[in-house]
Amino acid sequence: MTESPARRLLLVHAHPDDESINNGATMARYAAEGARVTLVTCTLGERGEVIPPELRHLTGAALGEHRLAELTAAMGELGVEDFRLLGGPGRYGDSGMMGIADNDDPACFWQADVDEAAALLAEVILEVRPQVLVTYDENGGYGHPDHIQTHRVAMRAAELAAAQGWEIPKVYWNRVPRSVAEEAFARLAGELSGTPFSKAAAVDDVPGVVADDRVTAEIDGTAYAVAKAAAMRAHATQIDVAPPYFALSNELAQPLFTTEYYELVRGKAAAQRENDLFAGLVPGKEES
Ligand SMILES: [Zn+2]
């Protein structure tokens, strides 16, 4: 049996592309540092809107298959080898945006039994034994049903795994400090004419924006900015990348953050904002 790396980070996301947008620099950093980085994506995002006209014929299962290939390419850019679909590819369907009829599809993730999905994720937790879990807040960052469900499943899985012998020492939610978002959008307003985009999104379109004092960790991804942009570009059906900006299918420009932010929700918070998600963990102590 090969020895597991000492530091192990698990990220749980809703669709292929969410990981690169939210955590691309963080994932690249820890992979480069030799930590084990495990990504679990809950759906293949087969109801996503496709940006490039030449790929718009892809819908449903064909789009899901294509997005799995995009995810594979993105993980290559970030140096992440361990990525999985919850319950295997296609186990849970994309639920589409909140309020549409697709939300009622019994095969979609929004309709999944939380305990059942969490049990599948708990198996991964018990296998990997991560010290750090990263996922979304209770609103899924911005209210998409699959993101909300991802939050519920991830938090429940952490409980189930704890009851079965592996309590994850630190749990974080993805965040962006309001002042950082506001400054970035102010800069974007001045630079918009020099970008390929004609309109800008707004601060409140960015998932996870909160008051600055709720942010407890900040990962400077400057050294991994190129890798993050490349990973985002690999999700070509979903993201139009023009660093330091990008747009989703709504074509609204938004900042591409190379520093990524987190709020610690389980575990012991440091007095100052952390710059390492593994900060404060005692080596060896979490190894059992
Ligand atoms: Zn998503």
From TrEMBL:
GO molecular function: N-acetylglucosaminylinositol deacetylase activity
SUPFAM superfamilies: LmbE-like
Catalysis: reaction(s): 1D-myo-inositol 2-acetamido-2-deoxy-alpha-D-glucopyranoside + H2O = 1D-myo-inositol 2-amino-2-deoxy-alpha-D-glucopyranoside + acetate
Keyword Hydrolase: yes
Key words of the record: Hydrolase, Metal-binding, Zinc
EC number: 3.5.1.103
Co-factor binding details: Binds 1 zinc ion per subunit.
Binding site for Zn(2+): H15, D18, H147
Cofactor(s), names only, from the UniProt record: Zn(2+)
Domain of life: Bacteria
Signal peptide interval: none
Function: Catalyzes the deacetylation of 1D-myo-inositol 2-acetamido-2-deoxy-alpha-D-glucopyranoside (GlcNAc-Ins) in the mycothiol biosynthesis pathway.
Homology family: Belongs to the MshB deacetylase family.
The protein's name: 1D-myo-inositol 2-acetamido-2-deoxy-alpha-D-glucopyranoside deacetylase
